[in-house]
Design a protein that fits this description.
Layout: E1 8-14, H1 19-28, E2 35-42, H2 48-55, E3 60-62, H3 71-82, E4 89-92, H4 101-104, E5 111-115, H5 127-133, E6 138-145, E7 155-162, H6 169-193
Parallel strand pairs: 1-2, 1-4, 2-3, 4-5
Antiparallel strand pairs: 5-6, 6-7
The protein binds 5-O-phosphono-beta-D-ribofuranosylamine.
Length: 201
Amino acid sequence: MTPPKPLLSLAVFISGRGSNLQSLIDACAGEDFPARIALVFSNKDGVQGLERAAKAGIPTRTLSHKGFESREDYDRAVLEILAEYPIDLVCLAGFMRIVTPVLITPWAGRMINIHPSLLPDYKGLDTHARVLADGRNQHGCTVHYVVPEMDAGPAIVQKTVPILPGDTPEILAGRVLEQEHIAYPEAVRRIAEGTAPPFPK
Ligand code: GRF
């Protein structure tokens, strides 16, 4: 019999609500899910995502970016925190900070993000309003590898939703978010099982 593969150990980075974190917490509670969360990291104190982690008994760390002279200095401090935990994969899940190569390079191919659009379309913020303003008929979300250029890394999983008459940015955001909660665990599973698209060398 082949021995079971070790579970993929995750750090999940958040800044707020943490509903994508919750989808990963729920997935990891499943017996056949090939990952566990070893750390939830936040750049903001007191956010809902930290409560979700605490409720699930997951270690949390918070480090405010305030007081750091540069993004690079902050990212160096985050790297040091990561080094304290046995992490295989960093999952940015609503982490509302631009990360620099200081943090990305050592984790290249082992850091992923979820973005609420069908990348490469609609990088950046306010995707739902922009998609509606352009009169598109579909939208969605992408889990992708993180590279130094924002929202530009190769896609791992994408989910598409229709745009319906009467949609507002809020209604559309809700429809996309439901798919985000499916896409993120699916991407983690594919990485753990070795079926995700490889990160280009
Ligand atoms: C999600 O829409 C995610 O795609 C984007 O920020 C939002 C975070 O939501 N990057 P939550 O904190 O996971 O609820």
